[in-house]
Amino acid sequence: MSLMTGRLPRCDVPVMNGTAGHRALRAGRASVPGCAYLLTTVTAYRRPLFKDHHLARSVCRCIHEAKHWGDASLLCWVLMPDHWHGLVTLGHRDSLSTVMNRFKAATAKQIRCIHPQVVWGTGFHDRALRREDDVRSVARYIVANPLRAGLVEAVLDYPYWNCVWL
Q1: What strands, in cross-sheet order, belong to the sheet with 73-79?
Q2: Beta bridge partners of 127
Q3: Residue 31: which of 97, 88, 100 has the closest Cα?
Q4: DSSP labels, 15-83
Q5: How far is CA 24 from each of CA 11, 50, 81, 102, rounded to the nearest angstrom?
Q6: Contact between 117 and 75 (Cβ < 8 Å)
Q7: HSE-CB of 24 using CA atoms within 13 angstroms
Q8: I need a labelling partner for 74 at 20 to 30 A (CA). Which of 98, 141, 142, 152 fits?
Q9: How much of the chain, in percent, has pLDDT values that exceed 70?
């Protein structure tokens, strides 16, 4: 994907079958190198852990470390009180599940001293962006989450997000 044009490779992802639960999410999941994905993961039991500024800041520092993303590129993200959204372009080495598992493990380890309980719920949601999707519009959607949730009156008032197009 070109960051300048926002063009993506075609990401034809198979449709999920009708089974229930996380198995159904995994059954339809495809990891396409070079494809951008809108990702969402929630905290365990949807607890609003990241209302605590110490936890949120600690996780944000971890999110910025390139080693946690392997050869994937983190384009945009927002950390909400009880979930995280990200826009990631996969590299050629790691699968989507590997990237998300590494992210969740690293962020949980980062705050283990402050919060020794389970941080993230199981699984995650992903949506592959298609060629016709405007990557920057998806990024704007992600960073506007705190605004839509009523946490702030302006996007720039929320401290826990970043985007490569700043």
Answers
A1: 125-128, 36-42, 83-89, 73-79, 161-163
A2: 38
A3: 97
A4: PP-S--SHHHHHHT----TT-EEEEEEEBGGG--GGGSHHHHHHHHHHHT-GGGGTT-EEEEEEE-SSE
A5: 19, 28, 27, 21
A6: no
A7: 7
A8: 152
A9: 83
